[in-house]
Amino acid sequence: MTTAESARRRVSARVRILLWLLFVMAVALTAVVATTRSVLLRDVDHRIDRLLAQETGEFTNLVREGVDPRTGEKFTDPDPLLRLFLERQYADPDEELLGLVARPGRAPAKKEQSREQRIDHPLAKDDAALTAVFDSPHATGTLHRAQGEVRWAKVDIDPGAGRPPAAFVVAFHPAGERAKAGEVFTMLIAISGVALLMTTGIGWAVAGRILRPVRLVRTTAAQLTEQDLTQRIPVQGRDDVAALAETFNAMLDRLERAFAAQREFVDDAGHELRTPITIVRGHLELMGDDPGEREETVRIVMEELDRMSRIVEDLLLLAKSERPDFVAPEPVQLAELTADVFVKARALGDRDWRLAEVAEGEATLDPQRITQAMVQLAQNAVQHTVPGQRIGIGSRAGADRIELYVADSGPGVQERDAAVIFERFRRGTARRGARATGAGLGLAIVRAIAEGHGGRVELRPTQGGGATFVLVLREVPREGQREGQREAPREQEPGLP
């Protein structure tokens, strides 16, 4: 299957969202409709039970307390008792009130209300059903007939000696009430269908609106190339989708920086390595058989190879600065770190080295990287001073930051150079005493180390002339560290920061 065919067969997120929404809505509406139907049918049953209990209760009360209007005495004959009750009662539309008197060998004789019957298949016309009800030992029950279900209740009458058994029966036909519940059920189904149709339209529109940033992400990703990473997604709102767009834009920013760093690395490496390679190739091509000439050529080639090795190492270090593990912070005593840097820097050249000031306390830093940066700054100061000139090294701690610096008394940095000297392969204007043999990567490495600690490197003028390079690190001193610094064992000279 080709990619195009796979894309056509793949269901879009918008359709999946709509299908899940419809599924949830259908389940919810089905549950509501089924529950409503169950409640309606249960209410019908409870209403029938109350009606049957009410009719039988009224008849029982008449039997217990009623008197025959003809004699003024208690009823002794079931016939006038049943006739009087049936004349006084009004049956509901689906209700039958009957008086039954036993007849040997035949269906019981029935006494009905004289009013017009409003039931299609009344119990009074079904002798078999009347016999079953009359002979039942139970006071209530349900008849399942082909013409329809009948709920009934009866009150047996004690006729006295010599009289046939009799009973009062109230029968209810629930088909009409259940039909009303069915109509409500049908109406709910119709309403649910309309609701699903409306949900389909609204859900399709809402899903499209919600997924629009996602489509923008897909479209933008499809337009991205290694040469063009400038596309960005417009962020609207403050919801999760907007957060997705912001995250995607941040990822593009990182990718753009990574590709830019990669291209810059390749360009810089090619630019800087081209010269020593050309020199090596030229000398090897012109090398003759003279031993002295051969020795001089080998010396030049080795120097150029060493220079290429240093350039490659510096470029790899700058490339590594983009990684999160570039620095490995650990608790460091600032005084010891400053003293170690001072001892190592003194071996770089014959200068008037001064340990200007030393910060007290402990901080969380990468001592190897900080030492590397400070030694690089000291080497830079040596290159731009002459023997005997003063170079100061020191550290100080403030309330919210730490500063480590190297101050020289050389000619300083010209204003036009201050903005570019921290960039890769950029050198300032040559100054007195300078030995510009490097590739212009030293200060770029210092800046990378400072930024790896969440800080920066600053260039400040030295009082009396010269340049001061300061590592400003946003490291809050640990508890117990007092602010400020103590004087170094050697007296600080005027002009140092």
Short summary:
With 497 residues, this protein is of the alpha+beta class. The chain has eleven helices and 14 strands. A hairpin with an 8-residue loop joins strand 4 and strand 5 (166-172).
Outline the structure in words.
The chain is of the alpha+beta class. Helix content is 50%, strand content 17%. It folds into three domains: 18-180, 2-Layer Sandwich (Beta-Lactamase); 240-320, Helix Hairpins (Orthogonal Bundle); 330-487, Histidine kinase-like ATPase, C-terminal domain (Heat Shock Protein 90, 2-Layer Sandwich). The chain contains eleven helices and 14 strands. Strands 2-1-5-4-3 form a five-stranded antiparallel β-sheet. Strands 7-10-11-13-12 form a five-stranded mixed β-sheet, covered by helices on one side. Helix 2 runs antiparallel to helix 5 (175-223), helix 5 packs parallel to helix 6 and helix 9 packs antiparallel against helix 11. The two termini are 72 Å apart.
